[in-house]
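A reminder from the course coordinator: this example appears on the midterm review sheet, so study it carefully.

Given structure:
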């Protein structure tokens, strides 16, 4: 069985306790487009919000499940501890530093890791985010910012960058990344006194990297609001995904099997440290049930939930997303 290499990040899904403030932060401050307002398909009583480039190009989606009672996150190991967002240039980071200052966003100084400038910051719930400059990037293509964004297009967020993982067992993580998922180790760098190892797939570059640090000295992370639920990696199509389902079953890795998400098809499994990975297809995409011009303005439900729309809407707190 021949598998094509994974193409990079597909999306990252995180947790918020407040959909309204989340929407305001990611659209009005970060300038991303809400391309889909839907529900968590495993719990339709809560929102699932997708922020991305102008049309939700695979590799640009940062998504949130609203869990209103989510407690505080206690950071630690065996978790996704940083989500990067790509911006076009080093000059963009200077723009963002001033924007964060103006809007009272908590941020750090600009730093350089292996020739790439980055700017770490937190949202209102402490979500750990990093802007990464694509100034010298030659890997996976970026998306295109929405032209109606409050952020100028030349500085707009163009996709997901490297995903940061903190684990207790590096060897176990490497076996999954390299031996199962086909990643290659490209380099390492020192971050806060600890070696961070970089793995890449496909065309490489900011949109196809996973950065892993081993911290067995830390307690396990206790997730809550401001934490990341899972990371998804790009698979070209449904035929390829079925091959991945076959492979993980052959390797006896506990998994979800094929899952229909309507906007894409998925496969979920946990690596040995307990971090949830998803493999997701590039299509069909977010314009399968809404036109490009009005993406994210109304509550979108997959066809298999449409007959329960009234019941689902009754449980949701109204969220106005039409500007």
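Designed residues:
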């Amino acid at each position: 069985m021949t598998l094509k290499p994974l193409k990079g990040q597909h999306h990252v899904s995180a947790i918020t306790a407040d959909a309204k403030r989340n929407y305001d932060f990611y659209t009005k401050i970060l300038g991303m487009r809400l391309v889909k307002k839907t529900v968590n398909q495993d719990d339709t009583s809560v929102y699932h919000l997708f922020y991305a480039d102008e049309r939700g190009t695979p590799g640009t989606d940062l998504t949130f499940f609203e869990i209103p009672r989510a407690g505080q996150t206690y950071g630690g190991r065996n978790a996704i501890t940083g989500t990067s967002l790509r911006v076009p240039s080093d000059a963009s980071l200077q723009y963002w530093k001033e924007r964060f200052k103006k809007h009272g966003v908590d941020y750090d100084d600009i730093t350089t890791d292996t020739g790439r400038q980055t700017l770490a910051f937190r949202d209102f719930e402490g979500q750990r985010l990093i802007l990464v400059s694509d100034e010298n990037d030659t890997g996976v293509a970026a998306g295109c910012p929405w032209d109606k964004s409050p952020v100028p297009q030349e500085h707009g967020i163009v996709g997901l960058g490297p995903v940061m993982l903190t684990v207790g067992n590096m060897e176990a993580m490497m076996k999954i990344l390299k031996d199962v998922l086909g990643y290659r180790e490209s380099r390492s760098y020192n971050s806060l006194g600890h070696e961070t190892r970089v793995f890449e797939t496909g065309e490489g570059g900011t949109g196809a990297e996973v950065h892993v640090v081993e911290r067995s000295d830390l307690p396990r992370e206790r997730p809550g609001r401001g934490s990341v639920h899972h990371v998804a990696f790009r698979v070209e199509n449904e035929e390829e995904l079925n091959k991945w389902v076959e492979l993980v079953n052959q390797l006896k890795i506990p998994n979800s099997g094929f899952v229909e998400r309507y906007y894409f098809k998925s496969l979920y499994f946990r690596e040995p440290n307990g971090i949830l990975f998803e493999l997701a297809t590039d299509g069909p995409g977010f314009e399968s049930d809404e036109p490009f011009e009005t993406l994210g303005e109304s509550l979108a439900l997959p066809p298999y939930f449409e007959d329960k729309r009234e019941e689902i809407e009754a449980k949701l707190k109204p969220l106005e997303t039409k500007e």
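The helical segments are 19-29, 90-103, 170-180, 238-250, 309-315. The CA atoms of residues 28 and 90 lie 22 Å apart.
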